[in-house]
Amino acid sequence: MASPRERGEAGDSGLFAEGDLAAPVGAVDATAPLAARMRPRTLDEFVGQEAVVGEGTLLRRAIEEDRLTSLILWGPPGCGKSTLASIIAHRTRAAFEPYSAVTSGVADVRQVIRRAQERRRKLGQRTILFIDEIHRWNRAQQDALLPHVEEGTIILIGATTENPYFEVNGPLLSRSRVFRLEALSREAILGLLRRALTDTERGLGNRNAIVEEDALHHIADIAGGDARVALNVLEAAVDAVAPPGSGASAGRVTLAVAEEAAQRRILQYDRESDEHYDTISAFIKSVRGSDPDAALYWLAKMILAGEDPKFIARRLVILASEDIGNADPMGLVVAQAGADAVMFVGMPEAQLTLAQVTTYLACAPKSNASMVGLSRAMRDIRERGAAAVPLHLRNAAHPGLAQFGYGVGYRYPHDEPEGWVPQEYLPSGAASGPYYEPVPRGVEARFRELLTHLRGQRTKGAREVDAKSRDPDPSASQDS
Predict the structure, then answer these.
(1) Which among 239, 238, 198 has a CA at the least distance from the CA of 215?
(2) If exposure means fewest CB atoms within 10 Å of the residue's CB, which of 87, 133, 251, 410 is most exposed?
(3) So what's the pLDDT on residue 3?
(4) What per-residue confidence (pLDDT) applies to 9?
(5) Nearest to 296 by CA among 286, 309, 288
(6) pLDDT at position 12, please?
């Protein structure tokens, strides 16, 4: 079956950055990078995403039977989103229009819509519009597609590295099915590398190079699930020992050669991307979960990716109150001191401070009792309204206020032997129950014991006050 581009039906704007999604299957550009040459051409060659397009899956059947509906392909770089679109382009009888959201806009989409409407009217042919990095389109650009997706004029395939539930308009998302592609496993990457080394048509099978097993594993490890990274490093390593066209005797790619070819792994991490938010989430959850090893791993990833150390320090200060609280009050002191040190010292030395704070907080006893208590109090105020301040607690600094009852009946705790009196501080009927309930861990265990005693005394004192108000003359009560 001729490809859409061969039929002259695909978009001719040249806007798609990687250009040849719908190029003839047999075409191999020997000058193209290895990752481009080795791009899978069929579903059988497309490995690592069996949960999405494996035998018998919904999406695979839709592709094979050419009955696609609009869909969003979501996953990290190098997992195969554009490759899957290329496979669809070669299998479908629909016209295939590839675009990049980086370089195209609403005007370009209008041209696609006009061509799609004409094909549908004259030929009864569907049009698939593939938009790479669809998350880069703003709301107005995405809204321009909506009526045409609803009418069936176009079938949308969007590809994004960002969470589509945050980045794609709700109405457009509701008319599309989301498929989550995962980063390729180490085993899948190794399979792709071995395929490239043995493929004599598109790969490195004709090159005089022997790649040692530990070098191959190193490349798979540093790729981080990104097939493009792995193949690019492999090509660089092979080029180093057996340059193209040199006819040199068999070169050997050792671990040292692979490490040099890889240089420093470029982390797929952008401060505005999902990876940023997912990584800080994993970091915070690891500290909260008292796992210093995992916390240090995510901290290392953020540091190597160039994350702002002040951002990490701020999150640790928040965590010290949110998740540790009074179980270890020193947690907040350590976190704040760490934040100050990060500002004072700067990177790279500040990473030592971040590691110290991280491990301290991870190992500290945990309590969110303060946060929960505040939430309960806020809920009561929202539901019941804010109660007036009881008269005995009001500011009675001016003597004239006493005539209105301000401060009358207030007892100063420091005047008492124990520094405490069973006095009510909450407005009557305001609280649905205790707000602060210390956990039986760390310092809060002592707070828990203390509050149990004080609350019991306060309740007892309140009963006594209530009894006196009903029967002000104890002797009369006894005589009766």
Answers:
(1) 238
(2) 410
(3) 38
(4) 37
(5) 286
(6) 33
- Upstream peptide bond of 348 is cis (omega within 30 degrees of 0): yes
Instruction: Write b or e for each residue in 303-335: b if 16 or more Cβ atoms lie within 10 A of its Cβ, otherwise e.
Output: bebebebeebbebbbebbbbbbbbbbeebbebb
Distance, in Å, from the CA atom of 107 to the CA atom of 89, rounded to the nearest integer, reads 23
In DSSP notation, 389-423 reads PPGGGS---SGGGGGGTTTTT---GGGSTTS----
Calculate the alpha carbon distances from 454 to 247, 260, 305, 307, 449 in Å.
88, 67, 51, 47, 9
Best CATH choice for the domain 34-180 from the list 3.40.50.1100, 3.40.50.150, 3.40.50.300, 3.40.50.720: 3.40.50.300
Model pTM score: 0.59
Sign (positive/negative) of CA torsion 428, 431, 433, 436?
Answer: negative
What is the residue extent of each domain of the chain?
34-180, 186-262, 274-363, 392-470
Structure tokens that stand for 333 in this block: 């002191």
8 A C-beta contact, residue 309 and residue 342: yes
Per-residue pLDDT at 288 = 93
Cα→Cα distances 164→76, 111, 177, 435, Å: 12, 25, 11, 38
Residues in the chain predicted with pLDDT less than 50, given as ranges, are: 1-20, 22-25, 265-266, 469-470, 474-480
Query: Which two three-digit tokens encode residue 327?
Result: 């179980």
Confirm if 305 and 265 have CB atoms less than 8 A apart.
no
